[in-house]
Amino acid sequence: MEQGMEISKHEADGLIVTLDAAEFNKAVGRVMAAAEARSKIPILTHILIEVDPETGLSLFGTNLDMQAEAGFVPESARIDQGGRLCVDGAMIHQISGRMKGELTLIESKGRLRLVCGRAKADLPTLPAGDFQKLGDMEGAVIVEVASGALKAGLASVQHCISTEETRYYLNGIYLECGGGNLVFTATDGHRLGHLEVTASGEALPHFEGVIIPRKAVQAFLKLAEVHDGEVVLSISDRMVQLACGRDAYRTKQIDGNFPDYHRVIPKDQPIHMEVPVPDLKEALNIVVAASSDKSSAVRLTPTEGRLTLSVRNEFRQAEAVIEHDDIPPAEPFGLNGKYLQQALDRIDAPLVKIGMTDAATPFRFEAEGSDLLQVIMTLRA
Amino acid sequence: MEQGMEISKHEADGLIVTLDAAEFNKAVGRVMAAAEARSKIPILTHILIEVDPETGLSLFGTNLDMQAEAGFVPESARIDQGGRLCVDGAMIHQISGRMKGELTLIESKGRLRLVCGRAKADLPTLPAGDFQKLGDMEGAVIVEVASGALKAGLASVQHCISTEETRYYLNGIYLECGGGNLVFTATDGHRLGHLEVTASGEALPHFEGVIIPRKAVQAFLKLAEVHDGEVVLSISDRMVQLACGRDAYRTKQIDGNFPDYHRVIPKDQPIHMEVPVPDLKEALNIVVAASSDKSSAVRLTPTEGRLTLSVRNEFRQAEAVIEHDDIPPAEPFGLNGKYLQQALDRIDAPLVKIGMTDAATPFRFEAEGSDLLQVIMTLRA
Q1: What's the gap in Å between the CA of B292 and the closest CA on chain A?
Q2: What does the alpha-carbon distance between residue B222 and residue B231 come to, in Å, rounded to a whole number?
Q3: Which of B317, B322, B331, B338 is the best residue to mutate to test the A interface, defined by the most A CB atoms within 10 Å of its own CB?
Q4: What is the ipTM of this complex?
Q5: Is A74 within the bounds of a domain?
Q6: Is residue A322 part of a domain?
Q7: Could you state, in chain order, the average pLDDT of each consecutive group of 10 residues for chain B (381 residues)?
Q8: Computed from CA positions of residues A277, A281, A282, A283, in that sequence, does the dihedral angle turn out positive or negative?
């Protein structure tokens, strides 16, 4: 080969490992969830690769607020020599993703060589010491939870996370323990989602409530999706970690006080109606399509056995009617149509139960067979 | 109903038609290809709806350069009254897309009412006369062509259309007749695609070469994709139209001279090689992944029975080797890796034939079983 592309294993002065290109690529993809694809700080675009003849490979990515780890002993792999280095994560992900079959990684003179069949690539490295791991989880409370339950908790309320940066303490999901359950709550001040899920068979240890940032919620969800069975939450003073086997996401908590959300959940509501979810979704889709302004304010008018949805603006008007026995007459009220659509998307039951006090008080949305409680503030209708 | 949402058929002072919501929605979608979703000129966001008890529905959309028409006699529909009006295309598309089953359109007092089951919407209209149809196709040369052949012609060369607005005459596909065939050519000055396809059984009438703008190329392709069998091209002095039944796209031609491309197609090349397409694609993917700079310059080094692809920049280097009998030794040359990838994507054969004069002269790419000729200029390697 020309242009000095030849590094043989003899010249290696660090790690030498041979493994399946696809398996390596997948692990790199997992830790890239925490790394930055582009950053002015080079180390944030880099992943840390640790190779240990005893324990196999460990990959790490970080954005300084969150850290991802993927550990594995590659199947049918050979570790000839251990070592540690950092390399551009997006680049090695892109290149290894186009390689098939056996891939050998060789470190030599500050560079990492990828060899796969008749193809090779040569990438610059940074010292392993440049990678800043998040502090460890010492003293953390350990909670085992079924991956499905954790997923339900996060996925059911995450649409209520606020995107307003000034209310940073609402930019995540509040996780606490209550009544022996894990309790997930998110709110953006206009709506609220709240779900209690059973942890594992054993008694839930006590921990102080923590706010898990939005980006970590998404990473946790991804991890819970690919792992069945039990996963392990670790909650320390300043961090939260979700681990499945040797894969883990660790995140700093949002440092703030989650508001006392209990007082915004309306209780003892005098008016209750049950509405068929498919009909309500269909009606809502039509009137929201006609609204197109930012607030998407939809007016809902309950009359005996009938709920009329309508929008009316300068240009257009639309209306759709749903009929159902369990609709009592009540004063018309206004809701954000998009919030209502998202709330219904979380309901996997034929009927939604709507609790109402009056047109100015928040509404409750619940459904048979689910503990998910959703609250939506009213708009002027 | 409240708020004056009630328009009954008796109040109609224009069109009344009942048809399947999905069928209507699909036709609106087709003509929206020419309309603008957003524009400061209201009529450009509007579609024209014409209802005629004899001929059925005709919908039109325009951006003043291109016009789309969808004509149909709706199945199991009822036209109670004819009429013509303009309505916001994106809005009626969005609303009717959420309606299911029988949809009735009623015009009354400058508004269009949609009624579908228990849902209705009420939209403002503009007078039909505000819609500016493109001039007609009088005196046009008519060419019948199999939809598959037209699709092949457009799809094989469209990646070579220039995006440089200053070279507006390259912003489309040049269509001419030559040797009894339809000839499609596109070039951006760095590469060229050229394909001759047989029109229909009958003799191809003569017409002057025309430049079909990129947006029309995409619309033509869409139309050719949904229609099997013969389609009809009409070529007038200033316009080109593609019609399939009562669906048609009509476009202004690009008013300019397409350059004499024959002189950039290299002839009598002394060096020829054949390279397996899957191997070349795989090798190219790896080295292009490592390049990541804008030019994507890839160096190709042919030695006896072997072609080495390599990239080398400030940070990285990568190389991949392909072996094949029909590779003669030649001087190394440089090509834009992304152009080469796109050229290979159009080749549906196991081997690509590469014709070479020297490292400074454009390369030809052809394949067995296809008339597609592609030319790529060289880069300094």
Answers
A1: 9
A2: 12
A3: B317
A4: 0.86
A5: yes
A6: yes
A7: 55 93 95 87 94 95 95 86 96 96 95 96 96 93 94 97 96 94 97 92 86 96 91 95 95 96 95 97 95 83 97 92 96 96 97 96 96 95 64
A8: positive
